[in-house]
Amino acid sequence: MSTLNNYMYQSFNFRGKKKLKPFYDLVASITAEEFGHVELVSTTINLLNKSSSFTGIPDLTPLQNAKNMRSTQSFIASAQASLPVDSMGKPWNGEYVFSSGNLILDLLHNFFLECGARTHKMRVYEMTDHPTAREMIGYLLVRGGTHILAYAKAMEMVTGVDVTRMLPIPNLDNRVFDAARKYEDRGDGNVLFTWNTTGDYLGIKQIWKGNHPQTGDKLRVIEGSPKGAAMPDLDELPEEFAPGIGPEEFQHIAKRLLDKM
Ligand code: MN3
After folding, report:
1. What share of the chain is helix, strand, coil (3-state, %, to 5)?
2. Spatial CA neighbour of 70 closest among 87, 83, 55, 94
3. How far is the CA of 143 from the centre of ligand 1 (A)?
4. Inter-helix orientation angle 131-159/178-185, to 10°
5. What's the 77 CA to ligand 1 centre distance in angstroms?
6. Nearest C-alpha neighbor of 24 from the set 108, 107, 111, 100
7. From start to end of 144-231, where are the E strands?
8. Which residues have a beta carbon within 5 Å of ligand 1, which is an ion?
9. 71 C-alpha vs ligand 1 centroid, how far in Å?
């Protein structure tokens, strides 16, 4: 949420888009990627909550497990789904957006934000061996790594300071993580996308070039978006009244019980 909204407002507010096109293109195209990442995390949360309840009439207490869940609110205010809150339920808010209008300061902030996000991902990875969670974290570790490098290279272009010498933060290679290794081997860590096929945002080629400072691999810009994968069709949850249209099974059970009364 923070990377998406920070880059989104910075791109909307960007001054000197023509003169500083590579930097505008970088912030704008990474915004597009972050939108996809929020959806990926949201989908993962929905999948992880699977089987925390059962389908049954209210008197059977089908949501009984929710009482002892960390985010009980997710079972009350939503149907066991994602909400823009942290792991303790504290809501995300607009104060987390930094859009100073100063390009170096914004790039520095974005670099910090991505390094912080990388730290959080690594810690959450250490908390769970759930394959769905790990798959998501492994993939995002690799993609987040490209964003860290992209902002480091952008800062180097503006200031001459070789920020890439600080990397990786934290100092641990992505290949240590089982779930990240295949994405590294596939070369996902060397690619930036334009998320567009009309020739816009190709200015990122002026920043994303040369070789990866850790692997030596050639950095590539791909015009367009990554291939993606099929979206899971999330099951209906009659016990949460979701989606609430045509939960046949639930209606039948309830009707049978009422008929008996
Ligand atoms: Mn990112």
Report:
1. 55, 5, 40
2. 87
3. 7
4. 50
5. 28
6. 107
7. 191-193, 220-222
8. 3, 144, 147
9. 25
Contacting residues for 137 by C-beta, under 8 A, at least 6 apart: 121, 124, 125, 177, 179, 180
Tell me which residue has tokens 């990388």: 118
CA of 174 to the centre of ligand 1 (A): 15
DSSP state for residue 15 in the 8-state scheme: S
Place of tokens 């990240």: 180
Percent of the chain predicted with pLDDT > 90: 91
- Tens-digit pLDDT string for the chain (261 aa): 999 999 999 999 999 999 999 999 999 999 999 999 999 999 999 999 999 999 999 999 999 999 999 899 999 999 999 999 999 999 999 999 999 999 999 999 999 999 999 999 999 999 999 999 999 999 999 999 999 999 999 999 999 999 999 999 999 999 999 999 999 999 999 999 999 999 999 999 999 999 999 999 999 999 999 998 899 999 999 999 999 886 566 667 777 778 877
The CA-atom distances, in angstroms, between 91 and each of 9, 73, 82, 122, 169 are 19, 12, 12, 22, 27
